[in-house]
Design goal:
The complex is a heterodimer. In chain A, 39% of the residues lie in helices and 23% in strands. Chain A is built from 14 helices and twelve strands. In chain A, helix 5 packs across helix 6, helix 6 packs across helix 8 and helix 8 runs parallel beside helix 9.
Chain lengths: 356, 305
């Protein structure tokens, strides 16, 4: 089926639970999405919302025990990943699906030279000889923009800056030209200026190599310009799923609205307070019976605290987990139209003043 | 790096002299001496003996003579074993301790590392619980208990190994096991803890995400980091093992350095005590230096200047 739709990845009702002393933590509790070849998906959410666990589950990298994928299908290019033996999963890891992790400071092995860490991927998957792998390593470092790659390849990770290390991570991940790249908060640990460079690099390489990308982040600003569609996660659940443009213009979930409102806007008036969602993310081991976001939600009513909300379909591409999804959506549409109207008016006024 | 090694080697000399001085002060401060015997010596003979060994001189000049000899590597003759120099005695007895020590060290490393690594990989398995309980037992039971129990089983019941004394390779088996058991237990626990810590590191997840096999991940990515705590333990441990342990040498009647050391203390044999203390302190300092150097090889982030 995935072949017919041209999907590189299909995830269906994936559930990954962790057994802890505190009880079962439903880190990911039913996530469904698909990803076309060359497409970029953003997964957004606060810490502990299940973004990373989702992607570690795809790669079967969940430490077991305490974790376990209890339900769902992960189909990668027609292959049922969950049914594979661990040896067959290893043939996919690093070769067809590669990952970039959050913290480049700790994600590279401090004991091994950059060359060793780059070479082992291609030696393993592409059967490169040492010389081939070494040359390839230098080529990859050049590709991700590391100056003087020929000499730098012999360095150890601690001799690189944070941004450079993340470039090395990207070089490592792209060594075998994977079909799917999972970038787990690739810019979180970096300076803002370096962030932009790294995102530009991923975008550029994606365009060049035709890789599909899953971009995990808690920063809406990062996904805005990078992705075609977005999944918003909260407490292990998908709260909203929509094409990127639609999510930003007309969100159908109070949580998404809250997130969007908390993004600093350049036009934001100085001295006024930036919006923040009140409260803290819930303890995933002890979720309330109703909507997990209800205690923090501006729209919450009695029903939210008692009944788990439905996953409402706004349109075939846009879904929202909320009792009042339609209403919130309508509100967003109204706001969006008002904004457009105001923009149009200001432009008209501009034009008029110009002609005068 | 070379500078660092030379500097550390040079520091060993004053450190050793300091240790010798402190030991000498302690010996002199303790009541009694080599010449204190149950039978009181006639005053004339005592005076003669004191004169012969320079004990009639003022205390500071005694110290001066002693140190100037020691700096030249001459610890003098033993008081107890007449006509034998301290250096000869150490050279004669050290090989026994060293042989048992090195063999026990190798045994401890092999057993400890293997058990620790497997226990870490199969955390919470029955192997993990079993080997770690055994290690806990090995740590808690003193070797003067393990030794006699081994003798009882393997010598007195099964007649496999001789119960004591040195005579052929077979006589080393029980002392080596007795001595190595505690170290094996310690290394096993350190290895397990070190490996578990490293296996949780982000870069191990990276290595797994590359598609490497679990063995590759372990041997290539985890082992170096996981072994650092083990290395810091095994350096001084080797020095202690080489120095000979009194208990094991006593239990198995081995004429090693540990045995001689205790004898020299009981005999108040001042030159021999000082000689052995100097030898052991230098040994320990050298092994600590080796540990520090090996850190630099294990962890590229450590650089000495």
């Amino acid at each position: 089926m995935s072949e017919i739709n041209g999907h590189i990845l299909t995830v269906n009702d994936l559930k990954t639970y962790f057994q802890t002393e505190d009880g079962v933590v439903k880190a990911v509790d039913g996530i469904t999405f698909d990803l076309a070849r060359g497409e970029t998906l953003g997964i957004v959410g606060e810490s502990g919302s299940g973004k990373s666990v989702t992607n570690l589950s795809i790669m079967r990298l969940i430490p077991e025990p305490p974790g376990k994928i209890v339900n769902g299908d992960v189909v990668f290019d027609g292959i049922d990943v969950r049914a594979l033996s661990i040896d067959d999963v290893r043939k996919i890891r690093g070769k067809r699906i590669a990952m970039i992790f959050q913290d480049p400071m700790t994600s590279l092995n401090p004991f091994l030279k950059i060359s060793t860490q780059l070479m082992e991927v291609t030696q393993l998957h592409l059967n490169h000889t040492k010389e081939q792998a070494y040359k390839h390593a230098i080529k990859m470092l050049e590709l991700v923009g590391i100056p003087d790659a020929e000499n730098r390849v012999k360095s150890y990770p601690h001799e690189f800056s944070g941004g450079m290390r993340q470039r090395v991570m990207i070089a490592m991940a792209l060594s075998c030209e994977p079909e799917l790249l999972i970038a787990d908060e690739p810019t979180t640990a970096l300076d803002v200026t370096i962030q932009a460079q790294i995102l530009e690099l991923i975008k550029d390489l994606k365009a060049r190599l035709g890789t599909s990308v899953i971009l995990i982040t808690h920063d809406l600003g990062v996904v805005a310009g990078m992705t075609e569609k977005i999944i918003v996660m909260y407490a292990g659940k998908v709260f909203e799923q929509s094409p990127t443009k639609e999510l930003f213009s007309t969100p159908a979930n109070p949580y998404t609205k809250g997130l969007l409102k908390s993004v600093p806007d350049p036009a934001h008036e100085a001295g006024t307070e930036l919006y923040q969602i009140p409260g803290l993310p819930p303890d995933v081991a002890h979720l309330p019976p109703g909507c997990p976001f209800a205690p923090r939600c501006y729209r919450a009513e009695e029903i939210c605290r008692e009944q788990f909300p439905p996953f409402v379909e706004i349109n075939p591409n846009h879904r929202s987990l909320c009792h009042f999804a339609e209403e919130v959506y309508a509100e967003s549409v109204r706001e969006s139209n008002e904004k457009k109207f105001i923009n149009k008016q200001t432009e008209e006024i501009k034009i008029e003043t110009n002609t005068i | 790096m070379l500078n660092f090694i030379i500097r550390r080697l040079l520091i060993i000399i004053p450190m050793a002299l300091l240790v010798i001085t402190l030991t000498w002060i302690l010996i002199r401060m303790a009541p009694g001496s080599f010449y204190t015997a149950e039978k009181k010596l006639p005053p004339a003979i005592e005076a003669n003996i004191k004169k012969k060994y320079g004990l009639d001189k003022p205390i500071l000049s005694q110290y001066g003579i002693l140190m100037s000899n020691i700096v030249r590597g001459d610890f003098g003759d033993s008081l107890k074993y007449e006509g034998q120099s301290v250096n000869e005695i150490i050279a004669r007895h050290f090989p026994y301790s060293a042989t048992i020590g090195i063999l026990a060290y190798i045994l401890a490393l092999i057993l400890g590392l293997a058990a620790g690594i497997v226990a870490a990989l199969k955390q919470n398995s029955s192997f993990d619980y079993g080997s770690m309980s055994l290690a806990m037992l090995g740590l808690s039971v003193p070797n003067f208990v393990i030794g006699p129990i081994l003798v009882l089983i393997f010598s007195l019941w099964l007649y496999i190994f001789p119960p004591a004394r040195v005579g052929g390779a077979i006589s080393y088996v029980l002392p080596v096991i007795t001595l190595g058991a505690i170290y094996a237990a310690y290394i096993a626990r350190l290895t397990r803890a070190g490996m578990l810590e490293v296996m949780r590191a982000d870069y191990i997840r990276t290595a797994r995400a590359k598609g490497l096999s679990e063995w590759k991940v372990l041997l290539k990515h985890a082992l170096r980091g996981g072994l650092i705590p083990v290395v810091s333990f095994t350096g001084p441990a080797l020095a202690a093992l080489l120095a000979g342990t009194v208990v094991v040498e006593r239990v198995f009647a081995i004429p090693g350095l540990g045995n001689i050391f205790i004898q020299s203390v009981l005999n108040r044999d001042e030159p021999l005590i000082l000689g052995i203390v100097a030898f052991l302190s230098i040994l320990i300092m050298v092994f600590n230096l080796i540990v520090d150097i090996s850190y630099a090889f294990l962890d590229p982030r450590i650089r000495y200047e």
